[in-house]
Amino acid sequence: MENNHGGYGVSLYLAVRAIRRGNRSTLALTILIIALVMVLMNFLGMIISGVVTLYNDQMIDYQYGHVAIEPRDKEIVITDADALVKRLKQIPGISGVSAHTSTAVTITNIRNGKFQSKSLTAFNPEDEQSVTKYPMVITDGDYLSKGDTGQILIGTLLAGNEDESQDKLPSLGGVKVGDRVEVAYSNGVVKTYRVKGIYESLGALIDSSAFVTRNEMDSIMHSEDTATEILVRGASADEAPALKYTIMSYGVEDKVKTWNEKGKGILGDAISSLNLVKNIMTFVSLIVASVVVFIVTYINIINRKKQIGILKAIGIRKQIIVGSYLIQVLFQCTCGIVTGILMLNGIRFILTIQKIRFPMGNLTPEIEYGSVLVSIILLCLVSLLSAYVPARQVTNEEILDAMRG
Amino acid sequence: MIEVTDLKKIYLLGEVEVAALRGVSLSIHKGEFVGIMGPSGSGKSTLLHQLGLLDTPSSGKILISGTDVSRLDDEARTRFRLLHLGYVFQDYALVSELTVKENVAIPAIMQGRPLDECYMAATAVLEKVSLLKRLDHLVYELSGGEQQRVSIARALVNRPAIVFADEPCANLDTENSRTVLELFRAVNRDLGQTVVMVSHEPWHMEYFDRIIFIRDGLLDTERMEREGKQSR
Ligand SMILES: Nc1ncnc2c1ncn2[C@@H]1O[C@H](COP(=O)(O)OP(=O)(O)OP(=O)(O)O)[C@@H](O)[C@H]1O
Ligand SMILES: [Mg+2]
Fold it and tell me: What pLDDT is attached to residue A95?
């Protein structure tokens, strides 16, 4: 019996009773603080990953597909585009291929004379359907169909409002389905089109573009059998790199880029800046969290000085007393973390319903469980440390000093 | 069993030195029931703290069962207290988050005995101090006298070789005081436990085998001789 006395079972024994019978409101407050810290540490990350996903989805669904093929170096167009499209369609794992031809134009609203310089893109409506989501976001009128000539599809922001003050970007001042617009091409041809449909993807850049069919563009620009870009859709965004190599392995000599490679542009920079902000924020909230958790735990333990003195006086080893406080703190931490995660989910739910508008569309916040895990580990470490230091300090005090409280 | 040589305890209150013990030498034998008496502030609690390894002396030496306890480190003293000593505190010193039964059982639990055995032992001592009805109460629900008896039960649960009690009857009525004194006498006689008890009630004297009087931090030898003659 001499050697066997007083294992850490006693720590647990004491901790369980202290939690069960200790001060409820202090416990609740501590748990709440830890929960709020969890929220603080992960909130911005949640928004940022929502932005990233939104941005990525927009790029894939409206701009690049999963993989985009560009003209090879020093070329302006992909030649033999029809054959390439056909070949690509036969590659297993590819669910859609659509060739785009873009050219700079000036579009004028005939009714009021307002004009905008834009890039006009031509696609084959059927092919496009299998790659992008334009057909699904027509808000007025109709999507283009195969043989359409003299018809144009216009983004809602480019169409704009008659009342200019409502416009978010320079527009044509309120173009509606059935209206006529004049398109001036770079080769001097000017042609009048009927607006067939208006689409709204919620992406600012996307919604200030315009589209015609390839037949239409070919008749004016004589761009038959060429493309400025070919979009390819595969199984999923994650598999884009694999798809890229599959395409390359089929001997495609034009430039093949994944959506991710294409997207490392202006917004990509913005996102890495946001990520930096997020990391700074996490760091700051970790410090705030540490200080708060430390103070709460510290005061808590200093208040229990007398009890600690008593435990020591009746022959309970220091390590066991410290152990019991560590267990208590871990318990608080666990409750706080669980509450925090519930709160984050609650916030995400509210923000999903409430819809936050971003230039790329409505944001759906996403909880990043990777960084949640990091904050869990950090919080636990900080809590343990902030219990360990004062518990250690008090247990090292003279018994009678401690017992005096 | 206990050998104290020239024990001094000086408290430093800022610049001022307060000598609570000014050189006490005494010995207590195994199996004795010793009373420590003296006026308030004379150093009785201070002496008992020293003997009970709750505090370290400013100078002097304490031998318990041959161990020079004044040399033990903190860890060893804690272990020594757990294994060999029981202590009834003047202010009870109960653990507020534990029930009566758990408070009494905790020294036994610390020795690594099975939980139900500890609870059984605790219940048995609590019965002796008439607290069977209070087993599952939390200590703040108890009266001062009841808390004092819990503290006594806790000191006895491990059947330590030496029991120190600092005015264990201070808050008890005569009847309960008698119960406690009888209990100490019983464990002293039947289990051979040494009992050292601080008291200032003259009528307690009849229970003690021997009385150590202190006054102003020193043994009151004069009084010890006088009382010794009277009892003879
Ligand atoms: N921590 C301390 N710091 C300073 N002085 C102290 C301390 N503890 C005790 N003293 C002083 O030491 C002296 C002896 O105190 P002690 O508590 O031993 O007296 P006592 O005989 O137990 O008295 P009582 O019968 O009232 O309990 C007192 O003068 C007291 O003021
Ligand atoms: Mg005293």
Answer: 92
- The number of residues making up chain A comes to 405
Strand order in the sheet with B67-68: B16-28, B2-13, B59-64, B67-68
3-state secondary structure A160-191: CCCCHHHCCCCCCCCCCCCCEEEEECCCCCEE
Helix, strand, coil share (%) of chain B residues, nearest 5: 45, 25, 30
Greatest Cα pair distance in chain B: 52
Q: Closest by alpha carbon to B161, among B96, B64, B228, B229?
A: B64
Do the bridges between strand A210-213 and strand A115-123 make them parallel or antiparallel, or are there none, so unpaired? parallel
Confidence at residue A370, expressed as pLDDT on a 0 to 100 scale: 85
Q: Does any CB of chain A come closer than 8 Å to the CB of residue B226?
A: no
- What's the whole-number mean pLDDT along residues A314-319? 91
Residues of B in contact with A318 (CB under 8 A): 74-75, 78
What is the Cα B12 distance to its own chain's centre?
25
Residue nearest to atom 5 of ligand 1 (CA): B11
Instruction: Considering only the beta carbons, identify the residue of B98, B111, B154 that sits closest to A5.
Output: B111
Question: Residues A109-131: what's their mean pLDDT?
Answer: 93
**Does B45 contact ligand 1 (Cβ within 6 A)?**
yes
Token duo for residue A296 = 């709460």
pLDDT of residue A32: 92
Structure tokens at A324: 């019991």
Ordered structural domains, chain B, with CATH? 2-94+160-231 (3.40.50.300)
Q: Can you tell me the mean pLDDT for B114-132? A: 95
The answer to whether the CB of B12 is under 6 A from ligand 1 is no
- The rounded percent of chain A whose pLDDT value lies above 70 is 98
Closest approach of A46 to chain B, Cα-based (Å): 41
Phi, psi torsion values for A362, nearest 5 degrees: -80, 135
Give residues 372 to 401 of A whose Cβ lies within 8 Å of B: 396, 398-400
Which residues fall within 8 angstroms of residue A247, CB to CB, at 6 or more apart? Answer: A67, A69, A88, A91, A94, A232, A256
B186 vs B214: CA distance, rounded Å: 26
Verify whether ligand 1 is closer than 6 Å to residue B77 (CB atom). Answer: no
Average pLDDT of span A138-153: 92
- Atom 3 in ligand 1: which residue has the minimum CA distance? B11
Choose among B54, B74, B102: nearest Cβ to A313.
B54
Q: What pLDDT does A2 receive?
A: 38
Between A19 and A283, name the one with better pLDDT: A19
Q: What is the DSSP letter of A18?
A: H
CA distance A7 to chain B (A): 7
Residue A270 has pLDDT above 80, yes or no: no
Mutation test of ligand 1: which of B10, B11, B22, B220 has the most ligand atoms closer than 8 Å to its C-beta? Answer: B11
pLDDT of residue A203: 84
